[in-house]
Write a structure and sequence with these properties.
The structure holds two protein chains of two kinds. By secondary structure, chain A is mainly alpha-helical. Chain A has helices at about 1-55, 85-90, 95-105, 110-120, 125-135, 150-160, 175-185, 195-200, 215-245, 250-260, 265-280, 290-310, 315-325, 330-355, 360-365, 385-395, 400-430, and strands at about 60-70, 145-150, 190-195, 370. Chain B is built from 16 helices and 13 strands. Classes of the chains: A mainly alpha, B alpha/beta.
């Protein structure tokens, strides 16, 4: 009797243990599954984002151009015999453009029909001719085929973003214009070419002329200022706090505040910039100088925190050995600790910069969210930055800005990826393990 | 290396303060996001002529623009303020207080506000009274103000579609919303006898009644980005959106404007003043800056030229509804003569 009881107790004990084990394994499997689902979800969102951006933006890297036989007639251009650079710059190229397209369709008569015909070419088509003539004044007096930029509506129709069947709603080209386009296409005079203007000009209200170069230069100036301000300040702060500062209530307070600053919403820094840099110091509005200073305030905490972590990772034995050989504390830091910590500090700095590159909110307050056509020549000229350009284009009514917005996002993502890659390479190349 | 950096920083700071003290050679303006597409188009043409630098145009909203404009005189303050409504007397007082006494008002044309839906659904014909019933927080039912009970359009009137009321529109910070409230909700409210009586007795309560938009999900604040509203309308054929005419014009293959009180929002109807929901657009020039900041007079001349704001001008291509010939002539004279605003 007793034996039987013992047996059954033993069996139940192993049974419960086995059941519990099974439950524990199941829990582990579930946990793993949650993790995989979370990662898949995150990757799915990323993929959707990238696919939409790339599928929307890919077509913006090409631009419809039309080939027309252009007669460079000196009298039509209002030039006479003058070939000085000033005269060439100020000549009437628009008349030449219009004559070229009128000559291609000589049957078109009447003011309004000719207006429609000329509207198929971009307002900026004359710039192509001006550049051509300025490069080589000898073309004046000759007739030659020239590829010129088409208007945004033609561009959208060719790319299939707006309907091309005559008479449908939303076909922004008239039936006549669609007919002309058809004729040009059949003679091989319409082609999609690489959109160089996107990378060489500033903002424009005409989508086919709008470019990112102004914003790229603006971003470059802003980030240079940011780097010049926050790198020395950040490194100095990190070194002092990590290597020299006594551990007391004050340094604790400073540390807590730096960590808090890293979490402050960036628009608050914009208000600070408006109050201090613009209103108090009277710096120019919309300038990359002020933008760079504001962005420096935002990335400073990140750099200090990353810098301190990198300094902490240098083993104490290095410091002790240097001290043992008679180096002063400053020599220990500048000759040994700082060079060893540099890869980590640089990685932190680049990540802070990449963060600053994507900011728009603080720049709104200091007037950098603005329509600026001229390419900035210095950090004091008004300029926009890349994310601001994305924001402004996303808000424009013209249909052709939809694809250009995505193109601007692609360019911004490219710069961010390049910076992150630089951070990874730096870490891989110089990282030391102890 | 640190020393050179420090020297560079000091040099930079010196140049910065030196640079700020210099006079500006570029026009600066700020203001309404509705006027922004037109002001930027003129600015670009003006810059292209090559005599002056291209003006910098900020899109801050009408109120934000006036705040910068009225802050004072001098190169630190804007020269021109773009506005989707006339300057308020409180804003003008602020201007005068800061020494900005001579202000030139220029009316540039009209903008229509449309109620639109996807082309996949049928075009709707409504009255402003019906829009009020669909969107107001509280509506009069049997002589009493009650929380808006309407869930579908045909509950308001059997002629309207049976779909759920879902309207995407601008947030309260937007000038488009202000104009919509004034042009649709206020006018419509006066058509209800209960509210009309209220206007006499308690003007404040009346204002609250017509300017409160329902918050139970039927009206969705879709942010300032009108392109986003159009995308959402395309995806959801039952929804309606409220936005400016230029976006309807550019997306007429995807969305259609509802007919309001017998008139559809077309270029011709808005220009003729037949479409009821349209508003004038303005810009304001600081007279004290004319002569100190180069190019202001020329910019005004460019804006008021027929090739810009005329019937077939480039601003009409951008969606601006031009004024009549007589009105344009009158405003062009006033603007180019720099006639100041009297208040």
């Amino acid at each position: 009797m007793t034996e039987m009881v013992e047996k059954s107790v033993a069996r139940t004990a192993t049974d419960t243990a086995a059941a519990r084990l099974k439950r524990r394994y199941a829990a582990e499997r579930r946990f793993k599954a949650y993790g995989i689902v979370a990662i898949a979800l995150a990757l799915g969102f990323l993929a959707t984002l990238l696919i939409t951006v790339f599928s929307n933006g890919a077509t913006a890297f090409v631009q419809t151009e039309m080939r027309l036989d252009v007669t460079f007639d000196a009298s039509e251009m209002g030039l006479g015999d003058d070939r000085s650079p000033d005269a060439l710059a100020g000549a009437n190229y628009l008349a030449v453009v219009k004559n070229a397209i009128y000559a291609r369709f000589p049957e078109v008569e009447g003011r309004s029909a000719r207006r429609e015909l000329a509207a198929m070419l971009s307002n900026g088509a004359d710039i192509t001719l001006r550049d051509l003539v300025q490069d080589d004044p000898s073309v004046i007096g000759t007739t030659r085929p020239v590829w010129m930029i088409a208007s945004d509506d033609v561009d959208m129709a060719i790319k299939g973003h707006i309907p091309r069947t005559p008479g449908t709603d939303g076909a922004r080209l008239s039936d006549q214009q669609l007919g002309w386009l058809e004729a040009l296409e059949q003679s091989g005079a319409v082609e999609l070419k690489f959109n160089t203007l996107l990378f060489t000009t500033g903002d424009s209200r005409e989508p086919e002329l709008a470019g990112l170069w102004g914003a790229i230069v603006g971003s470059f100036f802003s980030l240079s200022i940011t780097l010049m301000v926050c790198f020395p300040l950040g490194v100095a702060t990190a070194v002092y706090l990590e290597e020299f500062a006594p551990k007391n209530r004050w340094t604790d307070l400073i540390e807590v505040n730096i960590n808090n600053l890293a979490a402050v919403p960036s628009v608050v820094f914009g208000l600070l910039g408006l109050a201090i840099f613009l209103n108090f110091f009277g710096m120019p509005r919309s300038a990359p100088l002020v933008g760079g200073l504001v962005l420096a305030l935002i990335s400073l905490p990140t750099i200090i925190i990353a810098g301190r972590a990198a300094l902490k990772a240098v083993p104490p034995s290095i410091r002790e050995a240097a001290m043992g050989l008679g180096a002063s504390r400053l020599q220990v830091v500048t000759d040994h600790v700082l060079p060893l910590a540099m890869p980590g500090i640089l990685t932190g700095t680049i990540l802070g910069m990449a963060h600053a590159l994507g900011e728009t909110a603080p720049l709104l307050m200091i007037g950098m969210v603005a329509f600026i056509v001229d390419i900035p020549g210095s950090p004091f000229d008004p300029a926009a930055v890349l994310p601001v350009q994305v924001y402004l284009w996303a808000d424009s009514p013209e249909r052709a800005f939809v694809e250009r917005t995505s193109a601007a996002i692609i360019v911004l993502l490219f710069f961010l990826a390049a910076m992150n890659l630089a951070a990874i390479l730096l870490r891989k190349k110089f990282e030391r393990r102890w | 290396m640190k020393k050179t950096l420090a020297v560079a920083a000091v040099a930079l700071a010196t140049v910065a303060f030196g640079g700020a003290a210099e006079a500006r050679d570029q026009i600066r303006m700020a203001g309404s996001s509705t006027v922004y597409p037109f002001a930027t188009a003129v600015a670009e043409q003006f810059g292209k002529a090559g005599k002056f630098k291209t003006p910098v145009v900020e899109s801050t909203g009408t109120g934000g623009g006036f705040k910068l404009f009225c802050a004072g005189i001098g190169p630190d303050h804007t020269d021109i303020s773009n506005a989707s409504r006339a300057i308020k007397s409180s804003e003008f007082e602020q201007c005068v207080k800061n020494g900005v006494t001579d202000v030139v008002e220029v009316k540039i044309g009209y903008d229509g506000i449309v109620l639109a839906n996807s082309k996949k659904s049928k075009q709707m014909t409504v009255s402003r009274k019906q829009i009020f019933q669909a969107l107001a927080k509280e509506v009069p039912v049997d002589g009493k103000l009650v929380a808006n009970p309407y869930q579908t359009w045909n509950q308001i009137d059997p002629s309207l579609p049976s779909s759920k009321i879902e309207v995407l529109g601008p947030p309260p910070t937007s000038g488009t919303r202000d104009a919509f409230i004034e042009l649709v909700m206020e006018t419509a409210a006066e058509e209800f006898p209960e509210l009309k009586a209220m206007k006499k007795d308690d003007a404040k309560a009346f204002k609250k009644a017509y300017s409160s938009i329902r918050e139970d999900g039927a009206y969705v604040e879709a942010g300032e980005n009108d392109n986003l509203i159009i995308q959402k309308l395309d995806a959801n054929p039952d929804a309606f959106g409220i936005f400016g005419y230029s976006f309807l014009d550019q997306n007429s293959d995807k969305v259609q404007g509802s007919v309001v009180e017998g008139n559809s929002p077309t270029f011709e109807n808005i220009a003729a003043g037949k479409y009821p929901v349209s508003r004038p657009l303005f810009f304001y020039v600081k007279k004290a800056h004319v002569g100190t900041i180069p190019g202001i007079k020329e910019y005004v001349a460019e804006f008021t030229s027929d090739k810009a704001w005329g019937k077939t001008g480039y601003l009409a291509d951008k969606g601006l509804i031009p004024m009549s010939d007589a009105e344009r002539k009158e405003w062009a004279e006033k603007a180019n003569g720099l006639a100041t605003l009297q208040k």
